[in-house]
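User: Show me a protein chain along with its predicted structure.
Assistant: Here is one chain, sequence first, then structure tokens.
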Amino acid sequence: MVDKGDVFPRFVLKDENGETVDSQQLLGLRYIVFFYSKDNTPGCTKEAVDFTEEYAKFALRNILVFGVSKDSVESHRKFKDKHGLKEKLLSDPDSLFAKEVGAFGEKTLYGKTVTGTIRSTFLIGKDGKVEEAWKNVKATGHVKRVVEGTLSCFRNDEPCDLPF
């Protein structure tokens, strides 16, 4: 399980356009990776739309946003178009990346233990280390906590490279 302060694992995944996103190319940038179960389900749609609604706040902080699920590139493209999403959606078809970071495993759903994606979000710093980690979260209200968490660099007297 990846935690705050850990080096975030390298990933190479396809986005909704079939283009490769390699985390090695993201070194020197701050970015968010949020894991969700499935395109077009109520909670996952709420979370993705909330990230889009707050997208300008992330952009002002020079933070990229990536959503990850096991859905196909084509499914992501349709989901993004249908809801006007701004964040990149990455396909992790076998949930290997989700498993590596601890965002896949046993969870309780409607009182039953099931295996699947555990809604989790990670804020990655310019050095590739996890600045903040939110695990096993509920969709409602989560993105506002992530927005607040992007200010973590101010609490640590670290430069944030804000444009103002």
